[in-house]
């Protein structure tokens, strides 16, 4: 049987038997050993090279402080990539697999209809005790419905290194602690159902995040943004008097 066919069947089974039920039941699901050692190492080495070459910039805050870097609130360094850049073949392969997984979830994601996603955000916490305070990825309906994070940290010991992603599922009496271990792929709802934080990291911590968009909410968000931009342009001459 061709490898591509086996992969398709495996991804479809994983999507329908693991990802979809867990998203609906508890709002999150992670998969370990997703790529395997060899391909996972290729992704890790490319991310490390970006870091070494100084390609990562301080992460910015959204919301009222949009575009502002405040290291005590958010301490990661990031780079946005499409996956088709030179040397990013392994990252592109990873993105293709994640895309297929989400595609196989299809109409089983409730009200959501996913047609597109963001670019990939490569993130590094440099190990100086910084993290990311509790926040919601999509608190105001910007279209993001699924957050997907791939972790790249070998020999990670959370007792020593920290860096746990702690999720506070809405209306639940428990928290979900996710260790950022190598070759782990995590899915969770992006909206107010899943406030989360990255606890302080005391070793270099790498991850790659993509967000999948609900088509209707994304279109509405773009429309609101265009209307707001047009309104500001119309008001601009008045403010110059």
Automatic annotation (TrEMBL):
Q: What is the protein's name according to its record?
A: hypoxia-inducible factor-proline dioxygenase
Needed co-factor(s): L-ascorbate
InterPro entries attached to this UniProt entry? HIF_prolyl_hydroxylases, Oxoglu/Fe-dep_dioxygenase_dom, Pro_4_hyd_alph, Pro_4_hyd_alph_FE2OG_OXY
- Identify the main location: nucleus
The answer to whether UniProt assigns keyword Ribosomal protein to this entry is no
Domain Fe2OG dioxygenase, residue spans: 116-214
Top-level taxon: Eukaryota
EC number(s) of the enzyme?
A: 1.14.11.29
